[in-house]
Amino acid sequence: MAAEARLAAPARRLLWALLLLGCLARLALGGVDSLWLDEAISVRVATTNTPAVLWNAKVDPRHPPLYYVLLRANIVAWGSQSEFVVRLPSALASLAGLAVTAWLARRLLGAGDGPLLATTLLALAPLDLWYAGEARMYSLVTLATLLLVAGLVAARSPGAGRILGAALVGLGLGAGLQTSFVMIPLWATLTAIWLADWRRGARRLDAVWPPAAAMALAWWPFVAWRGPQLVRLLDSPDTVFLYRRLVEAVGGAGLAGVLLLAALLALAAAAGIGAAWLRRALADPASRRRVGPWILAGFAIATVVAAVPRFYTVKRLLVTIWPIAALLVAWVSLHATPARRGRPGTTAVALVGVSLLAGLTAVLTPRDDWRGVVAFLDGRVTGEAQVWLDPPWNEVPYATYAPRHPAGTGAIGRIDRLVETAASSAEIWLVAERPGPSPPTSRSEAWLDAHWELVERHAFVRLEVRRYRRP
Question: Could you tell me if 136 and 182 are in contact, meaning their C-beta atoms sit under 8 angstroms apart?
């Protein structure tokens, strides 16, 4: 694919400015919003467990522990649990991902403006911006995926390139496997693409065995340390939200653990084969002109949809492959669209504009304002009143901000403890979720509305504080 493609000088200057903006945004926005539920869980897991407990994966059965270990080390190093500090590892991982993407683009797209375009598309991508500012492990998984790809690309060069490539393969795969089980289907997909590319080339064994050996070395500690954890997760996949919803949607009974893993690997291999077919299609100029517009339109639509709130489980999968999509789209937009006066760039600038608007939407979408809720309740709640949370897992973000008044919670879908609390309370301050324009009513809220008097309400981002008094 290596070939030069130049943008006009004004477009090039615009891309450099937007690339710098995307880099600065990853650091500047880390302390703006308060932590929401998933981030608060990360902080609690990292700060209430020793490194040994974390590494033995005894606190989060759905994720390997590397991210929590790094997050704990960062909190200890700074001596703080502020929003900026706990989000800093994700921001740094995202910035490192931009650097690796730039290197990959240089190797794959040539010496033209393709590398600048690809890196700018990623810098402004709504998913990459969102997870760069979230205290979760997904930016780290994305970086690990990029390191794996960079290693496979570097290993195509003889001599020292293969040694460097093997090292990057081992580092990326090893870190990814110790961070998220999503790395397993990602590895299968990328390996299928790599093997297809090797099969199309000279098929030299000295080009394949160093990365293969590095993969084996990365898999060995994973199987030894995380194998039992993965088996437990496969035996109870209903704890994974997306899987549970898919099973409910099709009305099936789900798959056994081994069959589920085999299905995931088969889908990943099919994706790898499809990617190899796409590469062959793009190599032919006539086919490229037919396929290219569909790729660009699909990328633009996906970019817009990615800025829509919620759908977190799907987004956590998409963010890991977004850099690869940015590389593909950068090349297609410069080589498969009509050029004006010999300088392709109109489509490229349009895609950057879409990414900029979607990225701004993502970073301006506020998270649940637990910081504001706790500060408000600290100033208003008296000793005779009771703070109540429904659903009960909201106790985690509430407690993150060290409130003066402990909160009561009940079991999911039950109000018996609320009824007991109400019998001995003069006032109850309910923190209710308001995730959308038509908020659902919890059982606690419905009971209080029916039996107590609502005397005041105060809106916060995606939350509402409601004060009830005995009738």
Answer: no
